[in-house]
Every structure is written in C-alpha cells, then in structure tokens.
Amino acid sequence: GVTLEHVKANILKVSLHQACQLDDSKQQPTDEASFNAMIAQAKTRLGLIVQEVGRLVLQILTEWQNAQKKLNGIKVHVNQYKDISEQIAQLTQKGFIERTAYAQLSHYPRYFKAIIMRCDKLKSGIERDSQLMRDMLPLQLNWQREYNAQRAQGEHSVDVRLMEFRWLLEELRVGLFAQELRTPMPVSVKRLYKIWEAMGW
After folding, report:
1. Which CA distances in Å does 174 have to 49, 95, 115, 120, 198?
2. What are the contacts of 145-151 at 24+ separation with CB within 8 A?
3. 166 contact partners, CB below 8 Å, separation of at least 6
4. In the prediction, which pLDDT does 31 show?
5. Could you tell me the sign of the dihedral formed by the alpha carbons of 51, 65, 180, 102, in that order?
6. CA 135: distance to chain centroid?
7. pLDDT value, residue 25
8. How far apart are CA 70 and CA 141, in angstroms?
9. Are 50 and 15 in contact (CB under 8 A)?
10. Cα(140)–Cα(124) distance, integer angstroms
11. pTM tops 0.85, yes or no
12. Which terminus of the chain has fewer CB atoms gathered within 10 Å of its CB, N or C?
C-alpha cells in the first residue's frame, strides 16, 4: 500500500521536478553558470510548489479512497465492478504520483469523481451504463493490443501518441459516465475512432 513516507517522498520529487522545470520541453543547463541559475530560481519557487503539489496529492488520495469505497458497494454489478477496478488499477500503478506528468496528474481528482458519479448512477439502473461500456470496449481493446505490442519492444519504445490516446480514453469515460464534469476537449466514441484510424495502427 501507499505509506505516508512514500507520499512525502513523492511530493518532494514532484515538487523538485516542477521547481527545476525538468521536463523535455525546457532547455537543460549546459554549464555551471546556467545550472546555478536554475537552482537559484528553483529555490525561490520550491516552498509554494511543495504546498501546491501537497494539496493535489492529498486531493488525489482522498478521491481515490472515496472512489474505492463506492466501487466496493457495486460488487453485485460484476461487469461494471471489473471495468472500474481495472481503470483504478491502471490509474494508480506503482509510483504513479512521481511517474505521471504533473499536468496529467492534476486531472486525477476529476477522474475519481467521475467514477464516484458513475457508481451512484448504477442505483437507478445499469442498462445505459452497460451500453456505454459496449460502445467504448473496442477502443479500449485496440489501445491495449497496440500498447502490449509496443511495450514488448521495451519500455521506451511506446509511441507518445499512444500514451496521449490513453488519456483521451480516460476523458471519454468522464464524458460518457459523468457528463456533469467538464472535459478539457470534446470527446465521443466517434471522435476517438477517427483519431485512432488517423494514427494508422
């Protein structure tokens, strides 16, 4: 399970990453002067960033726990229980807090809230949910098949577009099962089919 020490360490790692802006889009320091300049700039931001990251991580862990509780209450709906269990497992793979891009991590509370809303809606019937699952399933299977094939070539051989599509699938779940929550971009089964076909896998 996730221990407090793990969480603290993850918050610090993510905060340092953000403070130093150590991502692929930024120019890495190439000499001592530019490295020292980056460190000086990072120090001024670190305190605020630790607070921001800490708040987000706490929110993620809280909503994750809430979603898990809701999930445990729908075990009678076997297909939905299996689908959501797999979704949560994929979202929360070991080290996900430090390994997920921060911009993506910031969407996690909404993903868990969407799960909670979906579970609540099952009380009034599962017919619509089951149909939406059937609509979405081929897209999920296509993605999983291609991901497994690319992953077999090595961890760093997975196409960046495939990982971006993985997050589109997560947004699709929000759009289908919790329309009340906004998605950052328009999503639909039809739209994602078009995107998938355009990638040519």
Report:
1. 28, 24, 8, 14, 23
2. 146/201
3. 143, 147
4. 78
5. positive
6. 21
7. 46
8. 25
9. yes
10. 26
11. no
12. N
Amino acid found at 78: V
CA 114/CA 119 separation, integer angstroms: 9
Whose tokens are 């430090």? That residue is 98
Torsion sign over Cα 186, 189, 192, 193:
negative
User: Rounded to whole angstroms, how far apart are CA atoms 121 and 80?
Assistant: 12
Asked if 191 contacts 143 with a C-beta cutoff of 8 angstroms, the reply is no
Place of tokens 């802006």: 21
H/E element holding 160?
A: helix 160-177
Q: Which of 33, 14, 21, 196 is nearest to 108 (CA)?
A: 14
Q: How many CA atoms lie within 13 A of 73 on its CB side?
A: 15
User: How many residues does the structure list for the chain?
Assistant: 201
Spans of the chain, pLDDT less than 50: 22-25
Give the pLDDT score at 80: 98
CA-CA distance, 119 to 71, in Å (whole number)? 7
